[in-house]
């Protein structure tokens, strides 16, 4: 069974935002001959996350509000005591972003059925930027059979 590694590059535009990356993942699958198998989607950053859910504008706004309430940027966090740690000069105070990422997930495994993502009717693969704007990379490991 072949294993193919591909990457999705995302330039985020806001401090907290959610991006539907389902079309990019399907494009990567289409670039292979894999017909049935799975794709492991993995975020390579400690202040980003992934989830499978509905890509509905008002729901996504609700999620952003929820995350900001759960880990407010203005709260006091030990991780933000930069003067007590050895850090690069451009180190952000981003403990809230790490906490948000920890309650979400860094990866999703999605079946590939007849060359298509095996998602349900309202499901999309969502990428969460929690400390942007930044350039981000999502790893996609596609495995399966050609028939």
TrEMBL record:
<dbReference type="Pfam" id="PF01894">
    <property type="entry name" value="YjbQ"/>
</dbReference>
<dbReference type="InterPro" id="IPR035917">
    <property type="entry name" value="YjbQ-like_sf"/>
</dbReference>
<protein>
    <submittedName>
        <fullName>Secondary thiamine-phosphate synthase enzyme YjbQ</fullName>
    </submittedName>
</protein>
<dbReference type="InterPro" id="IPR001602">
    <property type="entry name" value="UPF0047_YjbQ-like"/>
</dbReference>
């Amino acid at each position: 069974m072949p294993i193919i590694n591909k990457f999705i590059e995302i330039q985020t535009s806001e401090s907290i935002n959610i991006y539907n990356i389902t079309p990019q993942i399907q494009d990567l699958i289409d670039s292979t001959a894999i017909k049935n198998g799975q794709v492991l989607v993995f975020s390579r950053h400690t202040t980003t996350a992934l989830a499978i859910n509905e890509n509905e504008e008002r729901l996504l706004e609700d999620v952003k509000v929820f995350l900001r309430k759960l880990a407010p940027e203005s709260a006091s966090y030990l991780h933000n005591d930069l003067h007590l740690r050895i850090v690069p000069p451009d180190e952000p105070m981003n403990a809230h972003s790490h906490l948000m990422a920890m309650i979400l997930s860094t990866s999703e495994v999605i079946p590939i059925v007849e060359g298509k993502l095996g998602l349900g009717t309202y499901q999309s693969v969502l990428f969460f930027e929690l400390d942007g704007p930044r350039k981000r990379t999502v790893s996609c490991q596609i495995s399966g059979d050609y028939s």
